[in-house]
Design goal:
This protein has about 325 residues and is mostly helical. The chain contains 15 helices and no strands.
Length: about 325
Amino acid sequence: MSLIYGIAGSTNIGEIANSFSQHLSKIQPAVQAVRDGTAGDPEKALAGLRPFMLFGMIALSAGLFFKVAAVPFHMWAPDVYEGAPTSVTAFLSTGSKAASFALYARIFSVALGPMREDWAPLLGLVAAITIMVGNWAAVTQENSKRLLAYSSISNAGYLLLALVAGNLYGDIGLIVYLFVYTLMNMGAFGVIISLRRRGIIGDNVDDLTGLAQKEPFMAAMMAIFMLSLGGLPMTGGFIGKYFLFGGLIQRGTAERKSWYYWLATWAILNTVVSFYYYVRFIKVMYLGDRIADNRPLALSPALQVVLVVSVIGIIVVGVYPQPLIELAQTLIPSK
């Protein structure tokens, strides 16, 4: 931030964008003048400014990668999600991540928008690795909160795709997916909280064994949350990922760069992998050969409201997403 302030002379997002745009329009001729040996001191100063702009952008990216738990700054998330109280974990995975991506979008789409050609490949590479690490690490987890932590990491990678796309489809995907992701995670952690309320630890995936026999409605809601996290059609998760992947494909067509297509294909293939560990929850709930605990679940009125609102929101967005899409379009500046 200090480097960016030193270059732009302001901390205002719009003024940073204007300053960077002006600098970049002058840097290329200055670099050419240095190469030709005709540069004076002003041209040399401008030519030497670009490395500082790149370093400021990369350093700021690193700080924000830590905020959203993107690779390689993701290792805090599984331990924090597992060790924190489940209600705190639910907040970290929803409110904190949504706010961080709102910050990310404003800084990179607006303030650093003129440097898009520099940061788009960086974010694309980080997104690809984050999606892979999050999904494949989740496959081996037995603790449900730790599994959802890696799921949150992979979803950070999916959300980064919206910034890489940087078009209307990508922006709609960012808003829609953040909304449904918040509902999905609130619902999933709400079910885990309900298991703890009666003295059951509830932190392991196997603690949900037989839930369909004991609490069929709770099991059905958990199944909807998991299938939506995986991106099954007719759920909100599918609509969000549809726009995220569609934005990448549109950007690839507009710029005629094949790496956008490869990135979209990579994300789709890893989405298939994610179904493996999401379906594990459904398997133990419906096909488990024992009931983890026969005592009925006790849900507070607030928790009941959260679960009902989450499941209704996911289904409504999945079946009839148009109102949310139109709302998202009104929030997005025209491009």
